[in-house]
Amino acid sequence: MNPQQQKAHFLRRSTGGGTLEELNSNWSPIDYLERWLNDVTPDPVPSLPGLPSNANDPQLLTQVRQQFLDWLTKQTFTATNPLHERIVSFWRDHFVISLRKTSNPYMLLDYERRLRNYALGDFQDLLWQVTTSPAMLHYLDSNQNRKGNINENYSREVMELFTIGIGNYTETDVQEGARALTGWTIQTNFQEGSSTAIFRPSQHDNGVKTFLGKRGNFRTEDIVQILANHPQTGRQLGAKLWRTFVHPHPEPHIVERLGKVYQENDRSIAKVLEAIFTSDEFYSDRAYRSQIRTPQEFMVAALRQLQVQADPRRVNSALRSMGQAMYNPPTVKGWANDEGWLTASSLLSRLNIARQITLTSGDMGGFKFDRQKFSQSDLIFLLLDNNPAGAIPPSTDNLAVHEFAAVLLSTPLYQLA
Question: Which residues contact 336 (CB under 8 A, 6 or more apart)?
Answer without folding.
Answer: 330
